[in-house]
Amino acid sequence: MKEKLEEIKTKGLEKIENVKNTEELEEVRKELTGKNSTLSEVLKSMKSLSPDEKKSIGMLATEIKGVFAENINHKEKELIASMSVLKEPIDLTIPGKKVTRGALHPITQMRYDLNDAFLSLGFEVYSEDDISSEKYAFDNLNFAKEHPARQSMDTYWIKGTEEKEGSERLCLRPHLTGGSVRYLQKHGAPARFVYPGGAYRNETTDARHERAFVQYEALIVDKDISFSSGMVLIQTILEKVFGRKINTRMREGFFPFTEPGYEIDMECLVCGGKGCKVCNHNGWIEVMPGGVIHPNVLKSAGLDSEEWTGFYINIGLDRLVMMRYGVDDVRLFHSTDLRFLKQFK
Amino acid sequence: MRVSLNEIKKYVDLPNNLSDKQIAYDMTLRTVEVDEVEDVSKKYHDIVVGRILEVKKHPNADRLRICITDIGEDKPVQIVCGGSNLYEGEYVVVSKPGAEVVWHGEGEPVKVEETKMRGETSYGMICASSEVYLSDFFPSTDETEIIDLKGIECKPGDNISDIVEMNDTVLEIDNKSLSNRPDLWGHYGIARELSAIYNVPLKNLPKYELDRNLPEYHVEIQEIEKCHRYVAVEIDGIYEKESPIWMKSLLSKAGQRPINAIVDITNYVMMIVGQPLHAFDRTHVSGEKIIVRNAKENEELLLLDNNTSKLTTDDLVICDENAAMALAGIRGGKKDSILPDTKGIVLEVANFSASTIRKTGKRFAEKTDASIRYEKGIDTQRVDEGVNLALRLIKEIFPDSKIVKYKDTYPNETNKNKIKISEKFLDKRLGKKIPREQIEQILTSLGYELSYNNGEYEVIVPTWRSTGDVTIKDDVMGDIARILSFDSFEAKPINITIEQPIIQNDITLDRRIREYLSYSCDFYEIYTYPWIDEKYIHTAKIDTTSSLLLATPPAPELAYLRSSLIPGMLEAIVKNLRYYDEFKLFECAEIYQKGDYRPSSKDEILPIQDNYLTGCIVGKDAKEIFYEAKGIIENMTRYCHMESIKLEKIEKPAWADKNAYLNITKDNEIIGSLGLLSVQTMTESKIKRTNVAIFEINFDKLVPYNSRTNKYERLPELPLVEKDLSILVDKEVSWKKIEESVKSMAKEVEFIDEYKGNQIPNGKKSITLKVRILNEGTTMTSEQINEKMNTILNTLDKECGATLRTE
């Protein structure tokens, strides 16, 4: 009997040792320690033995059972440690599952970047409607009566009003600046606000010229400020947009609504200032006209020009976005072409 | 305008070691943007003077000659040439190998090489003027005529650019950038700016001593508001001849074609001082009298080509006793032409008001070099500069000429503006204190006169800046700032004092919605034009009665301004279907309708302008994209923190499918719609093999919350019991009805699925819903759960005729 038990033990341990997976192990567990196991069979056939024998065989059988259980548990741990959730290895070079997400228009993204920058400087966001009148688009802004921009070759007038004058002659706004007087009339001074939006001009279009473009204008009106404060503002904004310091230069410029007026150029990021097609080979890109608000404009806004002063900066968002990504055709912005828009996720 | 730096250097000694590029840069920063710096000598490289020593017949070609030519090198060279005017001893222009010439004066430049022509070696070529950019200097009558340098001092080997004075740099400035500075429309004005920029003296223009005892020419100005001054000089001994090379050279560089000496002198003077001049053939002026008057009704001006120009009574004309000779300040007629039989001239140097010239010029839609200058506003004193320089040049080029009559009629003088500026104003606005000497130096060099008294400058503006350019103290401050260079001012920090927080919920909502659509719902944002293609207005069935139109649209079919964003979206869909089958787009923009909207003042009545939002989902499965669009609208209020909106079927949008649309309402007002595009709209728009769900909302009607509004709910202490039910109902039973009947009995009811398929009996559909139930206070036993579920099923049966679906 004893020999039989020893044989069961040896064979049993061998079986455990040869188990390949947890399912097999369960089978083996049943076979070796279950009700119908050979060990149980042995114990059942003990009736014919003497009490002493019963005792020693019984002890031996229990001990073997314990050894089995221990080995099975050990084997189980061993198997789990080496197990994989996958039946077989997978191709790790297959690309991961796509994340689908749309995108804001690249100009909207730039607009939000600038909004964040200006909000931190205490600027309010204001918006004027697309359709304005000659009074707000030109008269209030010190444009001479015969200024060429007032002609239909330059400005989109609304049919039926094109021959009228002033507040009755309506147009798609040719610039955002008219909104500055609207704001100041309503809110007074001091003021500091930005007013982004679309502007429209009757132009022949090509890779560098559009009829519809997006601008971002900022205005500060206060006492005791000098135009050189504009420099800081511009540098802050460019640094925010491009993530590093950008070389700029401020040069003479003329606009009816400023005195003095200036143009702010940034170094061309496409060629690094060396000169290329994008910058017309001079290394600088005109991005921001600006200037000190003209006393006549303050007057239209109902403000005393002896007391108040301020300055504009106007950022051409199309141009700035073109610089940010190296876009070489301004018409793409209004193309609605997804092949273009999908690049700005 | 094109500015010759050699000419500038006649009037101002610029600092040494200053590169042309630096000059252009300094001018760009302080005066006006220089678009281009052009080395005009460049194109003349390897083009030299040659002297033909021998002309031989070409053995293989009748029309070609072999010219043994001295080009100043060790040995004479052989050049094959087809010129018709070759002779031995002739001084010619030779393009050596390496030069770049324009074949027969047409097309792109081509590099000259040493070649064989019909078997004979040719070292370069002997050139005609159009081939080597010399047409301005040596006009030719026939293509085969080569340049004959007879009478010009030169020797073989001389660079041709030296001979025609083209070793120069030209600064190109966009005329548009000069529109506010009438004083810069001549070289002398630019020289004055450079003298101020570099603080070097400006030389005086040449003077001419006129005999004051001359008899008077008869001049009558009838319109003294339009003609402020008129100088007429009658000169004898003027005839048609070529002008000297130096004058042709300057005109050529300035972009003016030389014509004959007298016309060239008038153009030259204009290029130097900016004052237009006019010369009439003396014999063409009938009655020896010039009258400046308004044109008569139906009067016409006879032009050189014998056509006529119709005039109006607004137009100012220069007339003799009989008829109009010229349109004042704009263009001449037949009578002012200098012709081969001209023997004397009447020279006009006049000042016309800017508005007159602008008005007439606009009607003729033609700008001339004279009108461009007059319409900017020229000071009357500039007439003197014009007269002086012109008379000096005439004396130099026509030494035998004689001034016989003279008259200066001067009814209206340009006054110098006077402006007071306090030192305090300057310090404050400039942001730093500029020493008095520096201010005086800058302003004086620009021509200002100034005195200082007790903290205040009194500034007298020079006449050439007093025609509208400098009128207020800010203008003078601007002059100081720009000459110092804006770049030289230290950037001053801006103080921020926060008085009130900036809360702009509408701005924030706009951003939230765009970000929700892009980032959560997978949409791409598009920008379209405010004018839309008529075609898509028709396919979208948009009513145009209250639409606005552009007076001069970009194209005839683009005259309508959008009164809906749908047509623009349709066009975008059509465009993108070429490359993609499935996509989602949205746009936020204004739409316009006739109406009465007064945002700022009572007298300004604008059209109604509302911000709209539109979006589309393009995909094959109509039902799926409809519910997707619906879900996006339903979830928008929660994700974007705004007041709730409802979806109800009230009124079909024109573009929508009759079976799949809903209106978006807020407080019982329709503020937008959602639906599938109708088959008709898709067919007409050429949207094929796909479906489109579209929504459109009036953005301005959406109301943002000031802050987060949802309340925290305590977490349930007891577990919710969740049960899925699949029921069979008649097809017509709506989900809403099912939901309503169960709602009161369950904590939550959720739609899972609708199914109509093979296993479902005809006229029925299967709905799967999830209910979550809960007993207040105690855990539910399985009996209680069963009891509750039975009640729910009974109610569903009673109200909706539902039966539990057995698998």
3D structure, described in words:
The complex is a heterodimer of chains A (345) and B (807). Chain A is an alpha+beta fold and 345 residues long. Helix content of chain A is 37%, strand content 18%. Chain B is an alpha+beta fold. Chain B has six domains: 68 residues, Phenylalanyl-tRNA Synthetase, Chain B, domain 1 (2-Layer Sandwich), CATH 3.30.56.10; 122 residues, Nucleic acid-binding proteins (OB fold (Dihydrolipoamide Acetyltransferase, E2P)); 192 residues, Phenylalanyl-tRNA Synthetase, Chain B, domain 3, CATH 3.50.40.10; 70 residues, Phenylalanyl-tRNA Synthetase, Chain B, domain 1 (2-Layer Sandwich); 197 residues, BirA Bifunctional Protein, domain 2; 84 residues, Alpha-Beta Plaits (2-Layer Sandwich). In chain B, the strands form ten sheets. Chain B has a seven-stranded mixed beta sheet with strand order 27-28-29-33-32-31-30, with helices on both faces. A five-stranded antiparallel beta sheet of chain B has the order 5-4-3-6-11, with no helix packed on it.
Concise structural overview:
Chain A has helices at residues 2-18, 22-33, 38-44, 51-81, 106-120, 134-137, 178-187, 229-242, 295-300, 317-325, 338-341, and strands at 124-125, 131-133, 170-172, 191-200, 212-222, 248-253, 258-267, 284-293, 309-316.
Throw out a few tags for this protein.
heterodimer, A: 345 residues, alpha+beta, BirA Bifunctional Protein, domain 2, seven-stranded mixed sheet, two-stranded antiparallel ribbon, 11 helices, 18% strand, rod-shaped, B: alpha+beta, Phenylalanyl-tRNA Synthetase, Chain B, domain 1, OB fold (Dihydrolipoamide Acetyltransferase, E2P), Phenylalanyl-tRNA Synthetase, Chain B, domain 3, 37 strands, 28% strand
